[in-house]
Amino acid sequence: MFITSLQLLLWTVVLLCVCVATATDFRDRIIPDEIVGIVSVCAILLILVSRPEVLWISLIAAILLIFALGMLSRYNVLGGGDVKLICAASLLVPPADIPILLAMIVIAGGVLGCLYLAARYVLAKSAAQEPAPVTAGSINPPATLLESEKAKITAGEPMPYGFAILAGIVSYIISEPPQCFYVMF
Q1: If residue 40 lies in a helix (H) or strand (E), which one and from where to where?
Q2: Angle formed at CA 115 by CA 110 and CA 121, multiple of 5 degrees
Q3: Is the dihedral of CA 41, 7, 171, 23 positive or negative?
Q4: Does 104 score more than 80 pLDDT?
């Protein structure tokens, strides 16, 4: 009973942290290292509680993953915070399921990328049809988060990949109960 409660608490902390990381990524295009650290510590505690025999394999897999994804970050395909959060998330699943988690993150990232490309196209098209607003003095800062995001999309800034990471983790969690029922029956 205690172990189940501890696992539930750790998963709750992890999901809250990833939600905060996603919100921060959306607002500022950065994933704080402190949040990645909390996710990593919770993930290691989950390993120790539920599957301690694979701790070293999980850690080695995460280290290899950070080197592989680090190359993508070096060439500006992924942000550094995204790489660190994905590696921390890889500790949440058994080592054999890391490719599944990565596939779910990549699929969510593809959907997110398509949405951002479509938004960029629509915003560019509407900006070409509308006359530019005339303002006296300095440029006014965006009034809302949505307006800020529209400005970021129009400027060609990178998309917040934290959404894809969150969606991949949630998709993995949702996919677990059907697998459990399949194994049981």
Answers
A1: helix 33-50
A2: 125
A3: negative
A4: yes
